[in-house]
Amino acid sequence: MKLLVDHITHYQYDAPVGYALQQVRLTPKDRPGQQSVHGWTIEVEGAEKQLHYTDHHGNGVDLIAVGSGARELVVRCRGEVELHTWDGVIGAHRGAMPLWSFLQPTALTRAGRHVRSLTAALGRDFASDIEQAHALSALILDRLAYKVGVTDAETSAEQALGGEGGVCQDHTHIFIAAMRHLGHPARYVSGYLRMDDRTEQDATHAWAEAHFDHIGWVGFDISNGHSPDQRYIRVATGLDYRDAAPVRGMRYGAAQENLVVQLQVQQ
């Protein structure tokens, strides 16, 4: 299956920006046998590309600088990704980060009282670790309804579980925290999902991957209740959202921003 992506991220500032530096992780990963990237471009308006590099998680990163006096920034990604037959199994671990590093908690994925209570409710009577992981995914969705506007990028797994709901980012952080608490390496994935009922979307998507002996990395889309398939494009991975955020950076000055995202994913 081939998917076409047209993704525009538009920042508008209410005052001239003193200076801003953004890390853009919006280049999909090439992985033989799973996905191949064709003709992918990233164009910017209101800023200049400083360099492109590969970070310690194997993510392609474009560093862009917003000059003094800018009132808007536009980042547009376009391209085609060919998805090969797979069932959510990524396989053997690769890259510079050692596997054990994906067991360490972060500020967003620390297992506190709420996460430990969740894993205790899960039980241990499962035929396999993967069966347990799927049961955990279902339990998270049952405990935390999908609800927009009650969390943000800095909401931790513990805070989300103690709240009124959350989005895919929150479901993913909770799953990662719980899997690490259970002794399995886990990581965050950001990317694109082709919806069955529409082309226009409000945002990129997020899901998790956990590592199992003799199988390797396996994906879990907690918000949709299944493992990723040919509709999913893997873009960036990391210990949590901060490592895999599509756009993340810093800005000097008192300007406030308004963000508008236009995204199309279609076959």
UniProtKB/TrEMBL annotation:
SUPFAM superfamilies according to UniProt:
Cysteine proteinases
Ranges for the Transglutaminase-like domain? 160-224
SMART domains assigned: TGc (SM00460)
Asked if the record carries the keyword Iron, the reply is: no
- Pfam (any one): Bact_transglu_N
One MF term from GO for this chain? peptidase activity
What UniProt keywords are attached to this protein's entry?
Answer: Hydrolase, Protease
A GO biological process of this protein is: proteolysis
The protein's superkingdom reads Bacteria
This chain belongs to the protein called: Transglutaminase-like enzyme, putative cysteine protease
Whose protein is this, by species?
A: Sphingopyxis indica
